[in-house]
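Quick one - inputs below.
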Amino acid sequence: MKELPIHIQLQPESGRTLYEQIYEYIRNEIRSGHLLRNEKLPSARFLAEYLQVSRTTVDMAYDQLVTEGYVEARPRRGYFVNAFEELCALDEAPKSRAASPDASGPASARYDFSPTAIDMRFFPYATWKKITKNILVDANSQMFSLGEPQGDLQLRTTICRYLHGSRGVSCAPEQIVVGAGNDYLLLLLEKILGRHVHVAMENPTYVRAYRIFRSCAYPVSLIPMDENGMRTDRLRRTDAQVAYVMPSHQYPTGISMPIGRRMELLKWASEKPERYLIEDDYDSEFRYRGKPLPSLQASDTDGKVVYIGTFSKAIAPAIRVSYMVLPYPLLAKYREECGFYSSTVSRIDQTILNEFIRDGYFERYLNKMRKRYREKHDLLLDELRDFETDFRISGNSAGLHMILTDRRGRSEEELARLAAEADVKVYRMRDFRMRDMESESAAVKKQERERDTEDAMLILGYGGLTAEEIREGVGRLAAAWGIDRGG
Amino acid sequence: MKELPIHIQLQPESGRTLYEQIYEYIRNEIRSGHLLRNEKLPSARFLAEYLQVSRTTVDMAYDQLVTEGYVEARPRRGYFVNAFEELCALDEAPKSRAASPDASGPASARYDFSPTAIDMRFFPYATWKKITKNILVDANSQMFSLGEPQGDLQLRTTICRYLHGSRGVSCAPEQIVVGAGNDYLLLLLEKILGRHVHVAMENPTYVRAYRIFRSCAYPVSLIPMDENGMRTDRLRRTDAQVAYVMPSHQYPTGISMPIGRRMELLKWASEKPERYLIEDDYDSEFRYRGKPLPSLQASDTDGKVVYIGTFSKAIAPAIRVSYMVLPYPLLAKYREECGFYSSTVSRIDQTILNEFIRDGYFERYLNKMRKRYREKHDLLLDELRDFETDFRISGNSAGLHMILTDRRGRSEEELARLAAEADVKVYRMRDFRMRDMESESAAVKKQERERDTEDAMLILGYGGLTAEEIREGVGRLAAAWGIDRGG
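Output:
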């Protein structure tokens, strides 16, 4: 069945020796992945006959490949391709990592307080597998067909119901658009909102969203925050048409926006027909203090809020299902401009997720994870009790991370460096502070000065760490930062 | 566990009766999907007590809901929500269908010669389930984590190998970007190519791609075709920077572009650094006549071709996995501008697909489907033998559809209408002909005149029909169009 994997067109008049041509061809096939690791090359005798060249010519080419490490000669078995694809992968990986907007500081550390890591150890794999298996048993060709562009009605109805019950979101299934991840939904939103939309964002903010807006060539105004979140007085000084906010638990500051500020934002939005608010409710499932806050969308009576949520955080990053709730004017525009875009989530995946939520597994898993994360949250807070002299601790009422604000005039760089030397990774707030487009000119220096005088803030995520790792990590931080742990 | 699904805040001073307020609240909860089909409402007695209103008030509200069909009274069991979500779905569905760019003519017919339908009856569901099951057995938390933005290296390596072997595509795994469907990849390509890119397309063309380019606000020049495909002399009269073509089997005309025209296109692209060709190789797997044509990308020595392919057609529409091969200059731009966009395909799905291809199931399935589709193709051609006096038959060397060109001066409308009256759906070429932006002004009339004098062309797809349906459908067409089947 298998064809000879060598299709060289030798060019005798090319001025290059035949041995070089054979060597280069095979090397390129290996480098480009067309010849795979452990693939057997034809024997030298066979290839020589096939190409009508001398045996010595092929031997020289093979020897060169062996010398350079592309090919391995196994005694009495022949020539085999070495694991070059893995070398390629190693070449590639650092680029991908560098492209991650959340990366900062050292590449990796033994104790990584990443604010985006989650704990997958308690995920009900068995349940997920069972649902998948049952669905595939019943699966008919319908399941393998292309679903509705907005997502399957059953899943949208389930999401609608869940959002109503847990977040007070008021919507109909027809307002929901399901898509493969928040990034995709923001791209779709660009098509709905149109071009040249001036966006306002909190600063610091979610870097990925900022980069997406910038890649849409949207002008972005960065609005400073006070303890209640985005300052609406500063928002009003801009020409922004859309404000992107995270009112439940701002990323990364952890600020929860109180109702007064929410009403100010809604009022701002309601003053002009083209104004909208994008509410990214990325981690609202986890809240440890006080009553669950309803969503901003729940207070919206004028159809001004686009609500975005995801299952990547509450279930698993591999579950590429996010959703947005469109107010009716934007729903009409979606249908006009984007109604033809095919759904990016397979029906099989939509069906699995629907049953996982509908049959109560999601709620049970959330309850379990709330408990687990609360334990980690309480442990971290407890471990940090001796840090209070040197740091203010905040943003800890919800989500999976908290903020340490330095009281002793040290810089984020210094603190992060000291931590890294102890093999602990903490995250610097300045990596989440964007620089204003407008301030590239004269105001830039003033802003830079302001930034330099701002207190150093470090972000500590705990979602992905075990209790033991939290204890050890904080112990190392205390030693590195000279915290007196006598207390 | 379950809470009372009624949270009415009655407003006695609102000027509206309490009965109206209760009725409207429940109606809205049903319309918005918060109360689901078959959900039991609280008994009238209980709700009256709970809301501290008279029993009569609640009875009146419930009666109104029953009268209007929102709620059903089941004797001795109580009040239950009717299947309103399905009514909503019915409301929604026609809009979704209308938004489909490929829809034309009557909404449905008994014998639908759709050019996009495929045959899923031979899909190896059992194999797919087995692979899924095995993967989930071994699944670890790694599988549920977010993969690389471009797609998993293993899958990219497998795709690379498949494309090299079957389509002569020359690329490395690092050049491949995996995404959830062609529509998504075109959105990503917009970010890579930049704004205000002038695109040239064949006319008629793939309507969905046209709409995506237009929704990116790209100026689009529609280039007429001759029997060899896109006319490069006409392309050269435009300022187009990118040409989108389907050289293997143009959709919908079925034209295969010969090597001479391909070289002209490649030459055009190589003349300026910013010029590129997008090759959409949507159905190249199925070819019935002559040698398989290699891809345009295979002839490209200057890195000028973006190759796009999909598994939605060759495997199943639900498999939301497409891929594009980026030439190196665009790969660099991708990494700079879009490297941070998360993958839209879950790792689980990528792993299933990888094993399906890697272990030879894909090739076996393709071989089987080539045989099945060739049988349908031959049958349709045979059944159409008496049509040759009235129609020229073309575009039948590949893919899943062919073209009938009228020789007797009838219009596409008339022929499609006569078919519809016999419960047969055929597709009109004019629904795939786009109107040039430039021609909106003066030239529009000329073009309209040209269009009117063009021969009527009808598209007959056979992928989704059984042999019996093809026979019966053609028989009905012969009767409807007055074909003499004596021969």
